[in-house]
Design goal:
With 111 residues, the chain is mainly α. It has a domain of 74 residues. Helix 1 crosses helix 4 and helix 3 runs antiparallel to helix 4. It is elongated and about 50 Å long. The chain starts with a helix and ends in a 24-residue tail after the last helix. It is found in: Mitochondrion inner membrane; Mitochondrion intermembrane space. Pfam families: NDUF_B7. Keywords: Disulfide bond, Electron transport, Membrane, Mitochondrion, Mitochondrion inner membrane, Respiratory chain, Transport. It is a peripheral membrane protein. Its main location: mitochondrion.
């Protein structure tokens, strides 16, 4: 995968910085799979959830900002993968049509 990305001129990883430190995430008892570039938003969300007894209508602003951050990370990874596939020539059939569904929907707003 890394060789294909280097050949395509695509830098792997994300452009978002890691804001929360490992110590902060460990103190907030964030599970290891959730320690990503959005963990700084998950810490106050989990505190709010505990304070509000996990009521679904509470903590909506915190949840929205965390989910938006996660969505942006997914879209960034999908864009990287699409660039890698385009650089490799893509999957073509006899008629020149591509196989499958495009990774990024046309309605996505890519900054």
């Amino acid at each position: 995968m890394e060789e294909a990305a280097a050949a395509a001129g695509v830098q792997l990883g994300t452009s978002k910085p890691q804001i929360a430190t490992q110590a902060e995430m460990a103190e907030a008892r964030i599970p290891i799979p959730y320690r990503d570039q959005c963990a700084h938003l998950l810490i106050p969300l989990n505190k709010c959830r505990v304070a509000e007894f996990y009521l679904p209508w509470k903590c909506e602003p915190e949840r929205h900002s965390y989910e938006k951050c996660q969505y942006e990370l997914v879209m960034e990874r999908m864009l990287q993968m699409q660039k890698i596939r385009e650089a490799q020539g893509g999957a073509k059939v006899k008629g020149g049509a591509t196989i499958g569904v495009p990774l990024i929907p046309s309605t996505a707003k890519l900054a």
